[in-house]
Write a structure and sequence with these properties.
Blueprint (H helix, E strand, L loop, with lengths): L12 E8 L3 E2 L11 H15 L10 E5 L11 H8 L8 E4 L5 H14 L5 E9 L14 H4 L10 H11 L5 H20 L10 E5 L3 E5 L11 H4 L21 E11 H7 L5 E10 L9 H12 L6 E6 L4 H10 L15 H4 L6 H15 L5 E8 L3 E8 L14
Parallel strand pairs: 3-4, 3-5, 10-11
Antiparallel strand pairs: 1-8, 1-9, 2-8, 5-8, 6-7, 9-12, 11-12
Helix pairs in contact: 1-2
């Protein structure tokens, strides 16, 4: 149980479990063209509760849901509406937040902060993005001061342009390297699917198309396992004439939802909940908006310093692949090879998609599963770049490692 309000003290926080919908293409013929965003979130949360019967719904202290575009079916205080629509007791509150691509990641860290000081015991966290219904930046009204006072470059709010800027900043990160990395992501994802490592975390979603009738989404829709370097070499470069960023080496526009349970480790053990991994430290950092993709470098440096660890202590990396060049800039900074097997073992967003605010929890779901497969690894990282020039990193500890010390009481 959490400490009383008069005796808050630090507690260890764990990721219990997480699930996600299959990711669909954000187009009129995509999976979820006729499905509401909040229904995707509700479906995910109800399945998560079904899979964790040891979790009493009335013990949930909060529901935090993220969305980048908080309007329409992604508006109306999403955390609270998803809680009510999922059948949670009226006593369970909720709220929404936005940190663009790191929305779900921030939901997790906000929950961890509350749990860590003993203010809450159990928090449901997640994110949803229906980019088909809500294209990125739709109906936004950037303050004219951004340009009139030259706070950012005119094209700094275009994520594809920021990826091209990274290619400019680091000329050795060639298009050929980006294409090769992208193809490898597709291949690793296909191998993970064939190995049964993706489907256990997916929530089947019923679909209804007014013209085609009923269907069922059970797999990610966007993967292209037959992708080759030769096949994507001459794709259009939409963000710059003669550029290096293409549809082949970037994540596609995606619809989907993720959800996870965070808890105090003492509470998890009291209730008999799964302990998927323990949160060690986290950090967010800012960079020039023009090179948004470089954000995970300083956020990881901060998180490592706070944890008293070095990059050599990290045995598994789950890095969001918004653009191949963005991941390569991170790997180069730390002297990690493009094909290092510790990185994105199941492939990444280039293959499966990136539904903006939901992706942070997707990284965590995969890292937790990989921890089970790699008891020799003690620490892992989930990290991602964030629009407007930011990065986010969370460091986790593997409960299956020999040196993991479980909480035995209220510690």
């Amino acid at each position: 149980m959490a400490n009383s309000a008069t005796s808050y003290q630090a507690r260890k926080v764990v990721f219990v479990d997480g699930v996600r919908t299959p990711f669909g293409k954000a187009k009129p013929d995509g999976y979820y063209a006729h499905t509401r965003a909040d229904d995707l979130a509700v479906k995910s949360l109800r399945e998560l509760l079904r899979r964790n019967p040891e979790l009493p719904p009335e013990r949930i202290d909060d529901v935090i849901f993220a969305a980048t575009t908080q309007q329409g079916d992604q508006g109306l205080t999403l955390g609270r509406t998803v809680a009510l629509l999922s059948g949670l007791p009226n006593t369970v509150p909720g709220f929404a937040l936005d940190r663009m691509c790191a929305g779900a990641m921030t939901a997790v860290t906000v929950a961890a902060g509350s749990i860590g000081i003993g203010a809450q015991d159990i928090v449901v966290t997640g994110g949803v993005e229906h980019m088909g219904n809500h294209p990125m930046g739709f109906d936004a009204s950037p303050n004219p001061r951004f340009l009139s006072e030259k706070i950012v470059a005119p094209d700094a709010l275009n994520m594809g342009v920021t990826a091209e800027n990274l290619h400019d900043k680091f000329p050795h990160l060639t298009k050929e390297r980006s294409d090769a990395y992208a193809v490898a992501s597709q291949q690793k994802y296909a191998a993970a699917v064939n190995g049964g490592k993706i489907s256990p975390d997916l929530v089947p979603v019923a679909l209804r198309n007014p013209e085609l009738g009923w269907g069922l989404a059970t797999t990610d829709e966007l993967a292209r396992p037959d992708t080759t370097v030769e096949g994507i070499a001459n794709l259009k470069t939409p963000f710059r004439v003669g550029g290096k960023v293409t549809a082949g080496n970037a994540s596609p526009l995606t619809d989907g939802a993720t959800v996870a349970v965070m808890a105090g480790e003492d509470t998890a053990r009291e209730l008999g909940l799964n302990v998927g991994m323990r949160l060690v430290s986290y950090a967010f950092a800012g960079v020039e908006p023009e090179i948004m993709g470089y954000g995970p470098v300083p956020s990881t440096e901060k998180a490592l310093e706070r944890a008293g660890l070095s990059i050599d202590d990290i045995g598994l990396f789950e890095l969001n692949e918004a653009f191949a060049v963005q991941v390569l800039s991170f790997l180069d900074h730390y002297g990690i090879a493009d094909d290092d097997p510790r990185v994105n073992e199941y492939g990444g967003a280039i293959a499966m998609g990136h539904p903006l605010a939901s992706s942070g929890v997707r990284l965590m779901i995969q890292l937790s599963r990989q921890f089970k497969e790699h008891p020799e690894v003690r620490y892992g990282v989930t990290a991602m770049c964030i629009g407007l020039g930011m990065g986010g990193t969370v460091i986790w500890e593997n409960p299956h490692h020999a040196d993991f010390a479980p909480v035995t009481g209220n510690e």
